[in-house]
Amino acid sequence: MENALHLDKLDRQILSLVTKNARIPYLEVARECNVSGAAIHQRIQRLTKLGIISGSEFTLDPKKIGFHTCAYVGIFLDNAGLYPEVVKQLEKIPEITQCHYITGGYSIFIKVYTRNNEDLKHMLVDKVQAIAGVSRTETFISLEETFNRQIPLI
Fold first, then answer.
1. Is 12 left (phi over 0), alpha (psi -120 to 50) or beta?
2. What is the mean pLDDT of residues 112-124?
3. What is the chain's mean pLDDT, rounded?
4. What domains can you pick out in the chain, each with its CATH number?
5. Cβ distance 6 to 25 under 8 Å?
6. Residue 103, SS3 per DSSP
C-alpha cells in the first residue's frame, strides 16, 4: 500500500481553502495563509504534480436539472472474473455516477441518478441487468443526501 505523502501546515491550509471553493483566487488563498501569491501557485503546482489534487469541477444539483431519484445498486455477478467486462458496459450507462469494486455480498456497488423511479426501473432492467454476467441487483433509493464532503485534513 502506498504511504501517505507528508503535508505541512501550509499545504493543509491551502487544501482546506481550495476544497471548499476550487475557484478561490490564489491571491485570496495567499492572504488567508500570510504568504505570497507566488508561494501559493508553487504549492498548488507541487500538490497537483504529486497527484494530491487534480482538476476542478462545477458541482451540479441533480434535482435542479430534473434528476429526482438517487439510488445505490449492489450488483451480483455470475463470476468475479467477469468484473472487467461488466465495468466496461457500466461505463456506457450515463446515469451511473460512481462505480466501486467492493468486498461483501455484492461484487460491484454503483450510484445512479434518474429522473424518477420509473426511469430507475427501466435503467436497471434494460441496461444494468441486461449486461452479460450480471446475475441480479439490489437497489436502495436515497431519500435525502444529508451531507457530502471532502476527506478531512487531520
1. alpha
2. 98
3. 93
4. 9-49 (1.10.10.10), 62-142 (3.30.70.920)
5. no
6. coil
